[in-house]
Write a structure and sequence with these properties.
By secondary structure, the chain is an alpha+beta fold. It has 6 helices and 21 strands. The protein is elongated.
């Protein structure tokens, strides 16, 4: 028996609104919703734009992290309906990333229902939007890209019906995701280039700005925090630094802590923003890993005290931060000379 177009559309809408469930896509509790303005949604414009009352003024808000179909585009009606079911008439919290407004004057925000759900996450999980990530607004890109990947794998929504393709893709060379080593220095939990990289994937690290500097270029195997590894030549991401880790002839592990800051250096993509600042060299501190005094099974850097690896026995260790295991390339280690200079 054939199903009427109305019934088919209703069934599709029910499926979409069911996917936008009360439970947060990322297990977020109401108390975990980030700080920001709490406002009332007065109108849903489309799948990624709402009108809220902010300071007694009607204000348009555009969701960060997603690109949703609008107008007559494929799946636009279903996407708008899913967003309406999620936020219409509700109190929501607005979280800012970096950019205040877009070219149309709309606030750019991550929007949370107060039960813990982020609108961008829920739309991606339902397959009614695609993930986007443009500097500098990439705070949640890793989580958003992961939800998009799940929707793609499950062929949800527009991924099955509209022939969509992912909008953000890191450069790939010989099967390896390419990332500039300068990007690893950014103080961000996630980077768009690494959002779809899984444990065991190949990453090619290049030196975009300072090819003769103390960083290593080459290919690496990505191991996220929690992975079991054998420490050796590798990178580790830590706060606003990255560590070049090596195992020396004495059998001990050393970390070359490569630091950078906006005060000392301007990245290529920031030149227009900071024309008065010039590129500078990175600063490298070499330190030996030591056993932590409070827990001898943990290797730390002494200054500042930073936890990196936990001893699992039999030569195996657990990485407590994301690491990139060296596979091939330039593994030259920067060394501190008696003069205090680094070569």
């Amino acid at each position: 028996m054939k199903t009427s177009s109305w019934a088919a559309g209703a069934a599709c809408l029910i499926a979409l609104t069911t996917l936008v469930t009360p439970a947060s896509a990322q297990g977020r509790r109401p108390s975990d919703v980030p700080a920001g303005d709490t406002v009332s949604v007065t109108r849903v414009i489309d799948a990624a734009t709402i009108e809220v009352t902010l300071n007694n003024t009607p204000t348009l808000v555009r969701y960060l992290g997603v690109d949703a179909p609008s107008g007559n585009a494929c799946f636009a009606a279903q996407a708008a309906a899913a967003n309406k079911a999620l936020v219409s008439g509700k109190l929501v919290r607005l979280e800012k990333d970096t950019t205040e407004v877009d070219a149309q004057g709309r606030l750019l925000r991550y929007v949370y229902v107060l039960d813990g759900r982020m609108a961008s996450e829920e739309l991606l999980r339902a397959g009614v939007a695609r993930a986007t990530g443009a500097e500098p607004d990439t705070k949640h890109f890793g989580d958003l890209a992961a939800l998009e990947a799940q929707a793609i794998a499950a062929k949800r929504g527009g991924w099955a019906r509209c022939g969509w393709s992912a909008q953000i893709a890191a450069p790939i060379e010989n099967g390896c995701t390419v990332i500039a080593v300068e990007r690893l220095m950014l103080n961000r939990r996630t980077l768009p280039e690494l959002a779809r990289v899984k444990s065991g994937d190949c990453v090619k690290i290049v030196k975009a700005e300072n090819p003769s500097g103390g960083a290593w270029s080459g290919t690496y195997i990505f191991r996220p925090a929690g992975s079991t590894i054998t420490p050796g030549a590798m990178y580790a991401r830590w706060k606003d630094s990255f560590l070049l880790i090596s195992k020396e002839s004495d059998g001990e592990l050393y970390a070359n802590v490569v630091r950078d800051s906006y005060k000392e250096r301007v990245f290529p993509w920031e030149r227009a923003k900071y024309p008065d600042k010039m590129p500078g060299s990175t600063r490298v501190d070499q330190q030996k890993f030591v056993r932590d005094t409070a827990d001898a099974n943990v290797l730390v850097l002494p200054n500042p005290r930073t936890f990196l690896f936990r001893d699992l026995g039999a030569g195996q260790w657990q990485a407590l931060v994301d690491v990139f295991e060296y596979k091939s390339g330039d593994a030259r280690v920067a060394r501190t000379l008696p003069s205090g200079d680094v070569e």
